[in-house]
Design brief:
- The chain is built from 15 helices and four strands.
- With 378 residues, the chain is mostly helical.
- It has two domains: 236 residues, no CATH class; 119 residues, abc type-2 transporter like fold (3-Layer(aba) Sandwich).
- The chain has a four-stranded mixed beta sheet, sandwiched between helices.
- The chain is elongated, with a radius of gyration of 29 Å.
- It starts with a helix and ends with a helix.
Length: 378
């Protein structure tokens, strides 16, 4: 039997025959696929609980409260008589914001004066804070514009002129590449790539530390092992890049074939990175600790949790050596922007170059280890 075939069979046995590795490679992927996307399935945060403190008790204040409560972002679930009671509700986490309509709100509007409305939001939950401010600010602006237009019309200004003076330009928001403008569409594609990478790194690196020496030339050994990785992940890759996004309602505008072409060098580069980590650290328990420690840096350096523009240049250069960084970029371009293969050619070359560099590094490190082993035996 050739060295390539021996290495292929040995790698399959090391990954699928070892219970711990099998759980990392297969069971962990299933658990991640089911549990991780659940918080994001709603896409948008809706009906954040807010306390209303209406000290005016007028028709205008009731109209404002009705408008705010009608927004999808905020729900006025509690009514408090004063700020002390409202603050207590926020501290008890029964609400995440307070809208205070002061005494004299309607009177000030009728006089043509500004009537401030105070908004308090829990900034320790940034998404809550954002939704409270957004959900209350839009109705406030709309009500203010209607009141000002009504005042101008009462003074004899034509309706069309009054509307143009109050709102000289109509704002039309069009969320490109994310129709729902939701969190799931933004987070999950990158998360699926990172989950694949982390489980693959952990499983293959652990298998490499437990595998004994193989016969034949190192190049044939490495090619045989790479063939085993592709055989194992050939079924998992379409599930994570195509099936799961479809099940969770994520957009896939591009050609699935382009996704597979993108996934091929990603799998090879990730497997080679696992071999390099295993060759450098050698012991299984050390490899697991190292890869667990690298999980969070890989997450932030991927460029979707920490924007690429804000990453320092030297860290961004390091990020380009991580397979998930170009893979996530390519995945988003294909699935959400409908990019074709020629349009992601630079990303494909990046991944293939990374595969070649990591493959060369693995061969060098393993050759040094073989030489060291032979010197010890001599």
């Amino acid at each position: 039997m050739s060295a390539l075939a021996i290495a292929f069979r040995a790698e399959l046995a090391a990954v699928l025959g070892d219970r711990q590795v099998r759980m990392i490679v297969l069971l962990a992927l299933v658990i991640y696929a089911v549990i991780y996307p659940l918080p994001y399935r709603a896409e948008l945060l809706r009906d954040v609980q807010v306390v209303l403190v209406d000290q005016d008790g007028s028709t205008a204040s009731a109209d404002l409260a009705r408008r705010v409560n009608a927004s999808e972002a905020v729900a006025l679930t509690h009514h408090a008589s004063d700020m002390a009671e409202a603050t207590r509700l926020v501290h008890e986490r029964r609400a995440y914001g307070v809208m205070l309509i002061p005494d004299g709100f309607e009177r000030a509007l009728l006089r043509g004066d500004q009537s401030p409305v105070a908004l308090y939001a829990d900034a320790s939950y940034f998404l809550m804070y954002q939704r409270v401010m957004q959900g209350a600010a839009v109705p406030l602006r709309q009500m203010g514009a209607e009141i000002e237009a009504g005042r101008l019309i009462a003074q004899g200004t034509p309706r069309a002129v009054a509307a143009a003076q109050v709102s000289p330009a109509d704002q039309i928001e069009v969320p490109l590449f994310n129709p729902a403008a939701g969190y799931a569409t933004y987070v999950l594609p990158a998360a699926f790539v990172l989950i694949l990478q982390q489980t693959m790194l952990m499983g293959l690196a652990l298998a490499a530390t437990r595998r004994g020496p193989l016969p034949g030339h190192p190049v044939w050994q490495l090619m045989g092992r790479a063939g085993a990785w592709l055989a194992i992940w050939a079924g998992l890759l379409p599930v994570y890049l195509i099936v799961l996004p479809v099940l969770y309602g994520l957009p896939i505008l591009g050609n699935p074939g382009a996704l597979m072409m993108l996934g091929l060098p990603f799998l090879l580069a990730t497997g080679l990175l696992a071999q390099l980590v295993a060759a450098l650290f050698r012991r299984g328990e050390v490899v697991q600790v190292v890869l667990l420690a690298l999980g969070l840096p890989f997450f932030f350096l991927s460029g979707f949790a920490w924007p690429v523009e804000a990453i320092p240049a030297h860290l961004n250069a390091v990020a380009q050596a991580i397979p998930s960084t170009p893979a996530i970029d390519g995945l988003v371009r294909v699935t959400q922007m409908g990019a074709t293969l020629p349009e992601i050619a630079q990303i494909l070359w990046h991944l293939w170059a990374l595969t070649a560099v990591l493959g060369g590094a693995v061969l060098i490190v393993e050759a040094l280890r073989t030489r060291e082993r032979s010197l010890r035996q001599a």
